[in-house]
Specification:
The protein has ten helices and 15 strands. The chain has helices at residues 2-7, 14-24, 44-62, 84-89, 110-123, 129-139, 167-180, 197-215, 278-294, 339-354; strands at residues 67-75, 81-82, 98-106, 181-183, 189-191, 220-222, 225-226, 241-242, 245-249, 252-259, 267-270, 273-276, 301-309, 319-323, 326-333. The strands form five sheets. The protein has a six-stranded mixed β-sheet with strand order 6-9-10-13-15-14, sandwiched between helices. Strand 9 (245-249) and strand 10 form a beta hairpin. The longest helix is centred in the N-terminal third of the chain and has 19 residues, at 44-62. The radius of gyration is 26 Å and the shape is elongated.
Length: 361
């Protein structure tokens, strides 16, 4: 059993990762990125390098983002706040200078440092020479930007009207830094063919949610919280229940739990029989029954779906069960098909559940 599970792997076309990213980050659907969809890539890092090059090029046309940064230095003419203690300590007075601290508008921002560091990281890898040449051309414009250690970056960033164009770029940098490159003991970088399971899982969930938001506006698509059905309202220490994707139309609700497993497969084997992962089934059943309790007294129909990313294991889950008055389905989404066929799979799920309200796109 253990040997068999180790052989099972996720199968996904590199080109489909672009489409997943394009839905997750709608900016990739704009004119400047469309030619990426027609290119062929050997691995995901090549894809991210292409996206990053186009994104930085677009940002350079707008101008690199600038912020006020704190500076402290010895100056001959006074500026900002005089640091008396530091001036005495460094004996700058003897040189007819004073240590001053002041704010200065600069391109040396955290986000620009991250862009620069990510380009350098990709340059140390073995991606295509043409890609490296493209990234090197970009680095010329970062001469006034300091280095940063990507391992220490706080990726929880705030975006506003002034830096909104950096949102997708920061997410691609995060994917490269966290999921694509691994540093070897000799200091070199090794490319991974795909994002690791944790990062692919997050992208998989985000892609499905944004697909339904964009392609099926007739449905309300959200990652909503579900309240526990409590008798006394006491919920101390209970974990939050947040669905990956909830599709709703009036009282008709489908809760989708997106599951991405890179190696372990989508089923477990016991006594030569394949079964759905028990914890996954318990989880979606819990979501459905608690959501139904929320809607008590209103016309409603709540169903659940475990949507696995297809692996290359022999048996793929595909079934529908009726449990305590609710429909719980288990299906797989094949990410190794042409994207039009992936689209059809997702449309079929919506059409099957919501029937009259949803048309194929």
């Amino acid at each position: 059993m253990g040997r068999r599970a180790a052989q099972v792997r996720q199968v996904i076309r590199i080109q489909n990762i672009y489409h997943m990213l394009a839905y997750a980050f709608q900016v990739l659907r704009e004119q400047g990125y469309r030619d990426v969809a027609t290119e062929e890539f050997d691995n995901t890092a090549e894809l991210c390098a292409a996206i990053l090059a186009r994104g930085i090029s677009s940002q350079l046309k707008r101008g690199l983002g600038r912020e006020y940064v704190d500076k402290t230095e010895a100056l001959s003419s006074l500026r900002g706040k005089i640091e008396v203690t530091e001036s005495v300590k460094t004996r700058s007075v003897l040189r007819r200078q004073m240590v001053c601290s002041y704010d200065e508008i600069s391109v040396d921002t955290t986000m620009n440092r991250i862009l620069k560091a990510t380009c350098v990281l990709l340059l140390r890898s073995d991606i295509d020479k043409a890609r490296k040449k493209e990234l090197k051309r970009m680095l010329v414009f970062f001469s006034d930007v300091d280095d940063i250690n990507l391992a220490t970056v706080d990726w929880h960033m705030r975006f506003n009207r002034n830096n909104q164009t950096y949102r997708m770029l920061m997410n691609v940098c995060w994917l490269v830094a966290k999921g694509l490159l691994q540093t070897q003991t000799d200091g070199s970088s090794r490319l991974m063919d795909f994002l690791d399971e944790q990062h692919m899982s997050r992208l998989y969930e985000k892609f499905i949610l944004e697909y339904y938001r964009h392609e099926h506006p007739e449905l309300n698509a959200s990652a909503s919280y579900i309240s526990w059905a409590l008798d006394d309202g006491f919920d101390d220490m209970l974990p939050a229940m947040k669905s990956d994707i909830t599709l709703s139309h009036r009282g008709d609700i489908l809760i989708i739990d997106a599951k991405y497993y890179e190696h372990s497969g989508n089923t477990q084997q016991q006594f030569d029989k394949h079964t759905v992962h028990s914890n996954n089934l318990y989880q979606i059943f819990t979501y459905v029954k608690n959501k139904e309790a929320e809607l008590e007294g209103q016309p409603h129909e709540v169903s659940g779906l475990l949507l696995y990313a297809r692996t290359d294991e022999e048996v793929q889950p595909d079934a529908a069960y009726h449990m305590s008055g609710n429909r719980i389905s288990v299906k797989t989404l094949d990410l190794d098909l042409p994207f039009d066929e992936i689209r059809m799979q997702l449309d079929t799920i919506a059409h099957t559940h919501f029937a009259k309200e949803v048309a194929y796109v």
